[in-house]
Amino acid sequence: MDLGKTFLSWPVVRQLTGDDPLGRGKAAQSARTAALQPRTKTADRVVDSICPYCAVGCGQKVYVKDEKVVQIEGDPNSPVSRGRLCPKGSASEQLVNSPGRVTKVRYRRPYGTDWEDLDLDVAIDMIADRVVETRNRTWQDLDDQGHKVRRTLGFASLGGATLDNEENYLIKKLFTALGAVQIENQARI
């Protein structure tokens, strides 16, 4: 081991002998730290997106490498957020890459204790059957005073801001067409 090289590589020695007397820059930087580079530098492409968490609609830059999201940062060109993201928006990369992310339809039968995987088409058919059955069972043409209402109070919709405006608009139209009157969205709050 070369003692001179080891001694001269100490941060305090570099601080006292170099051009960083306060030890806030290169003097305090290890070789490992100096070799690091940002994940954004090696990305194959950058995709513009919108944060999925609330109704603000902050702009995001999504960095993709090998078809996998490696980093998400605020978009400085966004007139809404001007490059800033809240803690949830900053952590939205975890929404995509979390090992705990559910990527299959999961179903637990009534009184069941275990979850099972369902085919997407089977799950959609089950939901459609339940919506139609509930609508038929709870449909009201007239209220107690004989006024025409043509509605159901059997189901409601609570939308979220993780969907964009167009998707929420279509959901509102669907539930209105089905006769639901309790239609709300978290983004309105």
Task: Give your account of this protein's structure.
- This protein is α+β, with helices and mostly antiparallel strands and 189 residues long.
- The protein folds into three domains: 33 residues, no CATH class; 59 residues, N-terminal domain of TfIIb (Single Sheet), CATH 2.20.25.90; 70 residues, no CATH class.
- 32% of the residues lie in helices and 22% in strands.
- The chain is built from seven helices and nine strands.
Secondary-structure-based class equals: alpha+beta
Helix residue percentage: 25-40%
The total of helices stands at 7
Biggest pleated sheet: 3 strands, antiparallel
Which band does the percent of strand residues land in? 15-25%
What oligomeric state best describes the polypeptide chains here?
A: single chain
Would you kindly provide a brief summary of this structure?
With 189 residues, the protein is of the alpha+beta class. It has helices at 3-8, 11-17, 31-35, 87-90, 93-97, 120-138, 165-178; strands at residues 45-50, 59-65, 68-74, 105-107, 116-118, 139-142, 148-152, 157-159, 183-185. It has 3 domains: 3-35, no CATH class; 39-97, ADC-like domains (N-terminal domain of TfIIb), CATH 2.20.25; 119-188, no CATH class.
Descriptive key words:
189 residues; 3-stranded antiparallel β-sheet; elongated; 7 helices; alpha+beta; single chain; N-terminal domain of TfIIb; 3 domains; two-stranded antiparallel ribbon
